[in-house]
Protein 1
Amino acid sequence: MFSKDIGIDLGTANTLIFMKGKGIIMREPSVVAVDTRNDTVRYVGKEAKEVIGRTPGSIVAVRPLKDGVIADFDITASMLQIFIKKVFNNSMLARPRVIICIPSGVTEVERRAVKEAAFKAGAKHVSIIEEPMAAAIGANLPVAEATGSMVVDIGGGTSEVAVISLGGIVAAKSVRVGGDELDVSIIQYIKKKYNLLIGERTAEDIKIQIGSAYPYEGEGSMNIKGRDLMDGLPKNIEITSLEIREALADPLSMVLDAIRTTLERTPPELSADIIDHGITLTGGGALLRGLGELISKETGMPVYTAENPLDCVAMGTGKVLDDIDRLRELLSDDTSGKY
Ligand SMILES: Nc1ncnc2c1ncn2[C@@H]1O[C@H](COP(=O)(O)OP(=O)(O)OP(=O)(O)O)[C@@H](O)[C@H]1O
């Protein structure tokens, strides 16, 4: 029977599902709202994200993957099962083959556990692919060729830097700094400077609207709302793009350090290729204004942002599904030879 194989980008911020023959068919935040009275999952994805910070005491919104690791396995597994069932409208004609990309920091136990969750959701075969490899494939880098390609995937919880050649990762570094950490830095900056407490969603909004890594044309300011820590009352303040750039400088310097370290570990022949072809940015963090300029200035390399950076990892899993006979060797755990 015809089976619709799927590729899953199980990210700390977003989960995307690619279906063979259809492309990306689901994009949902990796968020679950749990009713603590009976430990049941009440909402997942977009619905759950909407209720973050607004739930009554008994319903808690959790992000089961945090800082690039699986913080709560059972909830991750339930979320994965709900997403898989959702894309098949709860009716699988035939059991699908699944390729999952998980944050690279996860342990062997977590890796096996994620596979188990996919099996429970009805998968026939489950393979894992390394995140930077999937990102590079999704960004159309020539990963299988004898040339060095450098990818920097900046997600919600982690930033993964890798140099890939001949289908393998030659040098890599992963840091637990991604878009979430940028949001936290904004919260801390505003708290310290203005004694104002803002929520995670407001911080992300500020980052997307006026955040930057490098000066840009049309710099501006934004009116934000929070709770004054002195008198506990709601308050408005005006914040400028310059201040936000200052707030983001520290976490961004950690990403820059990871890029420098990876470049230092890269064999000279491949370094020469990177000078020629540049560094490719993927992941939602790549959308931060001026990030390419900053990395280019600090490394002296040309930097390109992939088209649709948020989709690269899911597209990468999809390309492997589409061309499994040729690309099977890029899966990190397909030792059987029988995909
Ligand atoms: N326009 C934008 N400017 C800056 N950051 C953005 C923008 N759009 C999205 N982001 C950030 O991108 C991050 C999510 O990226 P992505 O979906 O690639 O992460 P993920 O794959 O779920 O995480 P990970 O790779 O760590 O598992 C969030 O932190 C989000 O705030």
Protein 2
Amino acid sequence: MTIELASAENAENPGSTGSAEGTTGASAAGEGSAALDLLAQQVRDLVDAVVLTGAPQDEIVEITAELAVLTDRLRALRRTSRHPLAFDPEGVPRHAGNAVTGSANPYALPLVSQVTPDRTIRAELSFRQVHEGPPTSVHGGVSAMILDHVLGQAVAVAGGAGMTGTLTLRYVRRVPYGEPLVATAEYVRSEGRKSWAEGRIALPDGTPLVEATGLFITPRVWKEEMTGAQ
Ligand SMILES: CCCCC/C=C\C/C=C\C/C=C\C/C=C\CCCC(=O)SCCNC(=O)CCNC(=O)[C@H](O)C(C)(C)COP(=O)(O)OP(=O)(O)OC[C@H]1O[C@@H](n2cnc3c(N)ncnc32)[C@H](O)[C@@H]1OP(=O)(O)O
């Protein structure tokens, strides 16, 4: 199933070129998405290189000017639509522009998760220095973002897809970057439009680093739209 989510900004101001979604240029959705994924990965590599660079000042100035040219080329060809929201056969929402999982979003890790036979969400991941908060450790907000997402996926595969109402975290041990880690999440229960899930980021041997519980609420408007679509 694929859903095109309408852009409220574009609906209100269809001629605007000021929104992050953009309103001019060719649509990239569905055409050359493999190329777009490669571009996004190149930008991730660029960000890592910027964080780690020891280049002298004049070299940095020159590279910045070259990058500005490329940024302008891309900006001149903005998409007219959002990336479509699709659901895989397991019921996990997939969206190439998502901030956590989006293959076409350089900001995304990107996290690749699976649904296990017992309906647990499981993702192997490795943070990078770009995610640093305290020295040598991953920023707690970055861990929270990953956990928000896998808990959201756990309730989604259980049929309770929703917006995060609350997310409670316990930071047990520092989270290292540059090492293999595992994020897991399970659906716990539902009451009406509310669903709860729990999860964790752990070392491969299961040692927990961050634990999370979350409440997800299916917005009234989603329920109405989904009921209306049947
Ligand atoms: C068209 C179809 C679209 C289908 C889309 C399908 C899937 C979407 C895709 C992905 C989702 C799935 C997986 C993705 C993975 C990751 C998830 C990341 C999610 C986020 O990154 S998300 C961003 C942060 N999140 C927000 O931005 C929320 C802002 N907020 C709101 O959008 C509304 O506020 C909302 C929707 C929460 C409720 O609005 P509403 O109008 O539907 O419901 P209402 O207010 O009536 O509340 C009903 C009952 O929930 C209680 N309640 C309300 N809010 C609460 C809260 N915060 N804490 C505790 N309880 C709360 C009330 O007290 C009442 O409780 P009671 O029934 O007991 O009285």
